Amino acid sequence: MAKRRVAIVGGGIAGLVAAFELSRTPSEYDISVYQMGWRVGGKLTSGRDHRHRNIEHGLHIWFGFYENAFRLLCEAYREWSPPDKHALAINRIEDAICPQEFTPIGNGDETDPPLFDVEFWPTEGRPGCGRADLSLAGCMARIIDLVRRYYQTTLRRNVTLQRLAPTLVDRRSAQRPIAAEAVPRGVPVEECLDLAAERSARLDVETPWTNRDDVEFISSALGDSVGALKQAGFAAIPDGDLLVQAMELAAALVTGVLWDVLVQQRSIKELDEEDFRDWLVRHGAARSLVAQSPLLKALYDTMFQYPGGRLERASYGAGTATQVVLRMLATYRGAVAWELQAGSGEVVIAPLFEVLKQRGVKFHFFHKLSAIALSPDQESVAALQFNRQVDLRDPNTGYDPIVINSRLRGFSSAPDWQQIKDGEELENKSVDLESFWCDHSVGMVRLERGKHFDDVILAVPIGALKPCCGELMAASGPFRTMATELQLVPSLAVQLWCSVDLRGLGWPKRKPALVSGPKQLNIWADMSQVLSFEPAGPRSLHYLCDVFPSDLYLEPADATGVQQSGQDEASRLTRWWLERRAHVFWPTVARPGNFDWSALFVWNGSTGAEALREQYIHANINPSDCCVATAAGTSKWRLRSDQIGIDHLYVAGSWIDTGFNTECVETAVMSGMQAARAISGVEREIVGETFLHAPFEYLGPCDLLRRYVRCWP
Predict the structure, then answer these.
(1) pLDDT score for 713
(2) Where does the Amine oxidase domain lie (predicted)?
(3) Which pLDDT does position 210 carry in this prediction?
(4) How many CB atoms lie within 10 A of CB 362?
(5) Whole-angstrom distance, CA of residue 367 vs CA of residue 381
């Protein structure tokens, strides 16, 4: 029987995962990946520049709940068999990605205190190995236990708070009988939290209408604990204030999940109609708290939930935000945060790419999608049209993107011009073949269904896809709405090679991965481990990033000078941050209004602010480089891979409906798995796609009415 031919457009992580899943049975599928430019990986790619430095799209912190992404990487490393694998510096997943334990939270532009030390307790296991417990009852119990442990740790570290530690007296939870027992009067906060965690662990999700008493007890116990801490004066002490904030937010979160998700069985998309902050207020959090808490700001900052890169437009659908918080804090394994030990293109993408090559997947580089044609009846995909960006000197051999640096297999940050016809001329013209605004083409390639492919997976980011989809958008109202309503988030990425180490900068603590520091670079991680695979010289390496307030990503494809405008603004913001904000964390080399430019390592002898020219600063304004926000009210427009309404056409990417609709590696991996499943029909588990989704969501109205009636007296 002839193989089913699948054309995957886009070689980002979603497209690569779709190819990985389908190629598990290479005898059934003939898979071709079409990619703009000279490498694969999308936002997760990286490349070596002319100085052999690793250049990233941005900072990539993996979280300990990335079950699908870790499992994928584990499989890829086991199967990966380049001829020099034994000699590679990193040839197994245990060396590729390691826990990052110290994750402080900054206090924004405030300096009193400038940050809060946050460290999560390690847990057993490793993401992607074995099964994770995603039960609602388990998550509730672990969130409450996390709060309890935070309470214990804070008291141990602060003698003043120990003296203030209250008991619950004359509070609702101390007086309300629960089943056959009541919480004793005068119970300590810690014991009250223990009781709440115990109640949570035995919630019955199969018969949610039977949980009302337990839900009221848990909610009251948490709320009463917060009230007791406030009454005892905890909020007047910085450590105690952050503890009170954490407990109040946790109380609102748990209460909201128990009432809205467990008892009322509301869907995630329904909850996503409301912003997370408003939802927390509705479930008991103070409006002033959600407006000012660095803990809540850290969530929006980490997940880039600022449409257009503008802080004033902050918005995060409550359902998805709740999923993220619970997965991040209640289901992590090993550690909350994990860091790549070299370039993402080297430790993630290259092994995956080479495994696909081993399996027979074909890659066609320098193919930029220009149009999607439908059949005359507008019901099926008929053809794909690409601009062929360059001609190869040896078209029969094809383009080989892999380069070897410091015993690592990866990619370069520019094409290998030696493999490209007229490559020297293109290099001299600084042609950027990964740019949305680059129109360089040497010809057109048209692929037709039935002749070249049977099915198509569009794995191109939605921002870059829209200009190619005029006919598709006209034929599919749901796709048109999704493409129109989803909002993009441009970002700013900076890499600084320094001539001094952390202590030389003035940072007295351990190696950090920090969020919510001073704008306009409020995420910072010391990534000096990457220097082990770069030329000697720099003493430390720092990755910084943030959202980038700009409308440049909206410029049409024929606009000129767009990227340069973005670069100019990115450089200005970076210099401003170093001179005006870096002192918050690096007081030895910076003070308000001044930065010691000799702290930056230079290769060409640049002095003063010119040293910035030898660092890496990039405005991610390419539509394909932008993140997709999960703003309140937008989740309902997302479609699953097979819901476009056009036969033989599927979609993949962090912008589709995966059941976990937030911008991250895990979501992109889930989307690729979903697309492969839609084509193959093979039911492989996608961890987390049903997390918190109401099991009765699709019952008829009469059934729903009966269940709701049973929830209330």
Answers:
(1) 35
(2) 451-679
(3) 81
(4) 13
(5) 19
DSSP state of 258: I
How many Cβ atoms are within 10 Å of 310's Cβ, its own excluded? 15
Question: pTM score > 0.90 for this model?
Answer: yes
- Alpha-carbon distance of 624 to 436, in angstroms, equals 8
- Read out DSSP for 636-680? GG---TT-SSSBTEEE-STTS--SS-SSSHHHHHHHHHHHHHHHH
Torsion of CA 249, 251, 252, 255, to 10 degrees: 160
Mean pLDDT value across residues 608-634: 98
Q: Which amino acid is located at 311 in the chain?
A: L
Residues 6+ apart with CB under 8 A from 484: none
- Buried residues in 123-148 as b, exposed as e (16+ CB within 10 A): eeebbbeeebebebbbbbbbbbbbbb
Sheet strands side by side (includes 649-651): 362-365, 29-35, 4-9, 455-458, 649-651
Q: Is the pLDDT of residue 697 over 70?
A: no
Q: For 309, which DSSP code?
A: G
660 class by beta-carbon count within 10 Å (0-12 exposed, 13-18 middle, 19+ buried): buried
Q: What is the pLDDT of residue 174?
A: 43
Per DSSP, the three-state class of 232 is coil
Between the CA of residue 33 and those of 6, 41, 371, 459, 621, what are the distances in Å? 9, 12, 16, 10, 24
Question: Among 74-78, 199-203, 511-515, whose mean pLDDT is lowest?
Answer: 199-203
What are the C-alpha distances in Å from 647 to residues 60, 375, 378, 454, 481?
Answer: 36, 10, 9, 10, 18
What mean pLDDT comes out for the span 428-439? 97
> Tokens representing 496?
């600084």
pLDDT at site 169: 53
Per-residue pLDDT tens over the stretch 25-60: 999 999 999 999 999 999 999 999 999 999 999 999
For 312-346, how does the pLDDT look when each residue is reduced to its tens digit (9 = 90+)? 999 999 999 999 999 999 999 999 999 999 999 99
- How far is it, in rounded angstroms, from Cα 400 to Cα 411? 10
Q: What is the pLDDT of residue 695?
A: 67
**Could you give the 3-state DSSP secondary structure of residue 406?**
coil
**Domain range list for the chain:** 4-95+341-485+638-680, 133-330, 491-620
Tokens 């051999």 map to which residue? Answer: 397
Contact 375, 382 (CB under 8 A): yes
CATH architecture for residues 4-95+341-485+638-680: 3-Layer(bba) Sandwich (3.50)
Q: What is the share, in percent, of the chain residues with pLDDT greater than 90?
A: 90
pLDDT digit string, tens, across residues 155-187: 999 999 999 998 875 444 444 444 434 455 578
**Inter-CA distances, 590 with 114, 496, 585, 586, 598, Å:** 15, 14, 9, 6, 11
- Tell me the C-alpha to C-alpha distance, in Å, between residue 551 and each of 487, 562, 567: 12, 10, 13
Closest by CA to 658, choosing from 678, 633, 680, 638, is 638
| pLDDT per position as a tens digit, 562-604 | 999 999 999 999 999 999 999 999 999 999 999 999 999 999 9
Q: What pLDDT is recorded for position 171? A: 46
Residue that is written with structure tokens 């094809």 in the block: 398
Rounded CA gap, 487 and 484, in Å? 8
Give the separation between CA 583 and CA 94, rounded to whole angstroms. Answer: 35
Q: Are 140 and 192 in contact (CB under 8 A)?
A: no
Kindly provide the b/e burial profile for residues 429-450, where b requires at least 16 CB atoms within 10 angstroms of the residue's own CB. Answer: eebbbbbbbbeeeeeebebebe
- 453: which strand partners? 449
CA distance 404 to 425: 25
